[in-house]
Fold this sequence. Notes:
By secondary structure, the protein is of the alpha+beta class. Helix content is 57%, strand content 7%. The protein has a 4-stranded mixed beta sheet with strand order 2-1-3-4, with helices on one face. The protein is globular and about 50 Å long. Glutathione binds at residues 10-11, 33-35, 48-49, 60-63, 74-76.
Amino acid sequence: xxxxxxxxxxxxxxxxxxxxxxxxxxxxxxxxxxxxxxxxxxxxxxxxxxxxxxxxxxxxxxxxxxxxxxxxxxxxxxxxxxxxxxxxxxxxxxxxxxxxxxxxxxxxxxxxxxxxxxxxxxxxxxxxxxxxxxxxxxxxxxxxxxxxxxxxxxxxxxxxxxxxxxxxxxxxxxxxxxxxxxxxxxxxxxxxxxxxxxxxxxxxxxxxxxxxxxxx
Length: 216
Ligand SMILES: N[C@@H](CCC(=O)N[C@@H](CS)C(=O)NCC(=O)O)C(=O)O
């Protein structure tokens, strides 16, 4: 049985969404981000810096998985692995699609995620007094070029093979962090429609419904 280490309010969401799309059973073993806990809570709650978890992932981050003894880290690599393992329409049909799906995952992490996180942190996650709108604005400006690239790539509706695949899940989950910048989406109509379609999928909605039940 597949074990996913993490919480819904973490990048484990990416793996949980994919597992839902694939219809594969999994066990979610809750590991909380250390920075979300007080020192007292961190003594009691399994977290990213607990010795027991560091033995599984010495990087001290979630998600990780244990798939019948295969331990993997890195949310997007985990999704690529699970899609390939279970096959079907989400998975690459050949080496060329495999390369394109890998390219989009690396593109999302390198070209979008750092600035999208800045947008999220400085417009939503931090208490208002600790937010810096100038940093958020600079991140929005930096995202305009990759968003234009993605918008153009999505003219046909999907990223790879003309169908919904693991590439869409991986990129959509990274782009989600930039949602507190609606100005980026207003300038990218293909991207906006694609993200709405991704978020209308039953497996995404199921993941988000569980996520909402977790304390913020
Ligand atoms: N590149 C990694 C990033 C993992 C990561 O930074 N996870 C965050 C949660 S979303 C985390 O564990 N933060 C807590 C910590 O660093 O202690 C991935 O995509 O899996």
